[in-house]
Amino acid sequence: MNTSTQLARRIVTELIEGGINDIVLSPGSRNAPLSIALYEAEKAGLLNLHIRIDERTAGFFALGIAKAAKKAAAVVCTSGTAVANYHPAVLEAHHSHIPLLVITADRPARMRETGANQTTIQNGIFANAVAYEADISDPDIKLTRAFNGLLSGPVHLNLQFDEPLVPDDKSKWLKGIKPRDYLLTSKSPREELVIRQSRGVLVIGHDRAGLSVTEISDFAIELGWPIVAEDPLSFPNSIAHASLLLTSEKTREILQPDVVLVIGRTTLSRSINALVKSARKEIVIDPRIVDIDVKRSADQILEGLPKLTNEFTFDEEWIPLWHKYSEKAKQAIADVPDWSEQNIARQLSARLPEGSTLFISSSRPIRDIEGFAEPRAGIETFANRGLAGIDGNISTSLGIASQRDSAVAVIGDLSFLHDLTGLIGAKGINLCILVLNNDGGGIFSTLPQNGVDGFEKIFGTPHGLDLNAIATSMGITTKNVKNMKQLLQELSLPIQGISVLVADLPNREVNAKYLKKINSTLL
Q1: 0.90 cut: is pTM over it?
Q2: How many angstroms separate the CA atoms of 466 and 477, rounded?
Q3: Distance of alpha carbon 103 from alpha carbon 99, whole angstroms
Q4: How far apart are CA 329 and CA 271, in angstroms?
Q5: DSSP state letter for 499
Q6: In 44-124, where does DSSP find H-type helix?
Q7: Which of 2, 98, 215, 375 has a CB 3.0–4.6 Å from the CB of 232, allowing a cystine?
Q8: How many whole angstroms separate alpha carbon 53 and alpha carbon 67?
Q9: Residue 160 φ then ψ, to 5°
Q10: What domains are there in the chain, each with its CATH number?
Q11: CA distances from 204 to 214, 231, 408, 445 (A)
């Protein structure tokens, strides 16, 4: 048996026996030994093989699988630029602590820097974004260190394959291989946290620092403070419209906490970050401070949820005070235009049935849900908040939906155009993609650069494209919705296969003026 076949079969065996059963493959020549071994393993019922022709979308698709399955997923590609196309997904996985196993095929080391075709220095290409990396040519390799590395984020295995690249034997190499359970993250002992201040606030970042909703909810009940959640669809007892009511400096002064406890990162609203920084004491809970956010500062930093000791007298006025200002914000947005991005966020969040899975795109959609949705339970939410890019959003949502009966994704028009190749090869997945189309980068109209000379060309970037026609040309079922009644009717239908709903919305300036009006009302 040639060494490339031996190495490929060894790697596939290690994956199966390590509990990784979802592998995303992009076609290529140098990764042929792995492609053949993976196909044979899938035929034997030992793993799930997903094919994506574009490595960038393949990386995000695997990221979505790992998020939804709460276990590692692997991506496999050929050599050269294919490897570099994984970098955005690797960075997102790194900053989100997602176990993404990146397996890249390479020429033998002797061919590097010789002018050989499709050959570059692949080992080390992801630098500090991977928890472990290995440049492998030995067919007797064990992946123990790689699996341990996945407990801290993405891992890169660079495999040197020499020719011949196809098997020269017909052995039944899969006989006796048995899938095993994936190794779960071991939990470190819980530290003790003594709380002596009654006027505190619990702030929960959208990614929850990798903790479960149940864990945090139990902790919040024990703590007994007001909850400010970037994701109000996971915490029904959180303060409604917190990011809006806190835009007022006067309100922040009235609601200034003695101590704020932050779980994860707060990446959405300047108003919430301003509240955090106003607190007399800041406590952070996030495991990423160990090896990613090592320079993050706070008065006290914890790697996980602590054991609580409450040594304060409950302040009966504190939570009602928060609800008073929450009600003020609710009244301020009561007249939100029916056909607007804000009302779509509110209605979508309220109308999705119990048990729904929702992926929320970066930029405006996730901020509108944070600000305008009423807190509720019963929805499983996902978002790419590691680096909060608009790339790979379709592919991530497809990866998530592949692990569920169905899912909904709400995505901006630029995010949709950015990841169109993610729609290729997505058969067998039930996902409804709601595209909020305001013909460009709507978020920039709400930022300080709005109105600068050349704004439309360098920030607004109107595309003027027919998104329905684009999706239809790719074989996707599409519909255009122009009012709330139409949208809610379409969202009430069963999700079967991939479908795209394009909501053509008022222009970006109208939207920005409405948000400005809301903020001025709350000042």
Answers
A1: yes
A2: 14
A3: 13
A4: 14
A5: E
A6: 55-69, 81-84, 87-96
A7: 375
A8: 21
A9: -90, 115
A10: 3-160 (3.40.50.970), 192-330 (3.40.50.1220), 333-522 (3.40.50.970)
A11: 13, 8, 23, 27
